[in-house]
Design a protein that fits this description.
With 112 residues, this protein is mainly alpha-helical. The chain has helices at residues 2-37, 44-60, 66-84, 89-106. The radius of gyration is 14 Å and the shape is globular.
Length: 112
């Protein structure tokens, strides 16, 4: 049972470290983390990476300007929208949180 607790603790610590890094260069972190959202929705480990990536993306959105985020939207939004239809509820929830944060930063410019 202790072995099952360690990965969760490590994952939470890793998430916290990445969120702290967003204070320094959020746009670069958003660009990097968005590539991990692109992984397929099949394996448990891949889903954990996607979930971590979505949570870090959500936290990073607060540290970019609207113009910076608009530059990233073309490759950021499609995988997030795909995650909304995931079978895993945590992935769907995290994807919705990212979309809400995007809207909070970009506003009505999000609509075509």
């Amino acid at each position: 049972n202790a072995a099952a607790v360690v990965p969760v603790a490590v994952s939470l610590l890793f998430e916290q470290i990445l969120c702290e890094l967003s204070h320094y260069d959020a746009q670069k972190l958003i660009h990097i983390m968005s590539s991990f959202v692109l992984t397929s929705n099949h394996g448990g480990d891949q889903q954990q990476v996607q979930l971590l990536s979505l949570r870090v993306l959500s936290a990073s959105m607060r540290f970019v300007t609207s113009a910076q985020l608009l530059e990233e939207l073309s490759h950021l939004i499609p995988p997030i929208v795909t995650s909304v239809s995931s079978a895993q509820a945590d992935l769907r929830k995290a994807a919705i949180f990212v979309l809400v944060e995007v809207y909070m930063v970009v506003g009505d410019a999000l609509y075509p």
